Amino acid sequence: MTTKKTTVEKTKRTTTGKKSKKASGLKLKLVRSLIGSTKRQRQTVQSLGLRRIRHTVERQDTPEIRGMLTKVAHLVQVIAK
């Protein structure tokens, strides 16, 4: 009986650590300066991982990232991947 339990636990460990191959991503590029933007917009751009103009990063396509992009859509360009 204990062997079944350990087999199930091993199965759970291996399956939870895998990443989905179908996870799509977004390529983001900062195209406008942060001069004149609000503190909140600067923090959002920083949390997206963008540091300077023409800096490009890749992020997963999640609702959280999409929400951040709507707040700073006038500063950031989404490049088709």
Write up this protein.
The protein is an alpha+beta fold and 81 residues long. The chain has a domain at 37-81. The protein contains 3 helices and 3 strands. Helix 2 runs antiparallel to helix 3. The model has no long low-confidence stretch (mean pLDDT 84).
Structural class: alpha+beta
The dominant shape is globular
Using DSSP, what is the number of strands? Answer: 3
Using only C-alpha atoms, the radius of gyration works out to 19 Å
Counted by DSSP, the helix tally is 3
In percent, how helical is the residue content?
40-55%
Overall pLDDT, averaged? 84
Helix and strand pattern: HEHEHE
The main β sheet shows up as: 3 strands, antiparallel
What percent strand? 15-25%
- Low-confidence stretches at least 5 residues in length (pLDDT < 50)? none
Task: Give a brief description.
The chain is of the alpha+beta class. The chain is 42% helix and 19% strand. The model has no long low-confidence stretch (mean pLDDT 84).
Give the key terms.
81 residues; 3-stranded antiparallel beta sheet; alpha+beta; globular
Detail the topology: elements first, then pairings.
Elements: H1 2-16, E1 25-30, H2 39-48, E2 56-60, H3 63-71, E3 76-79
Antiparallel strand pairs: 1-2, 1-3
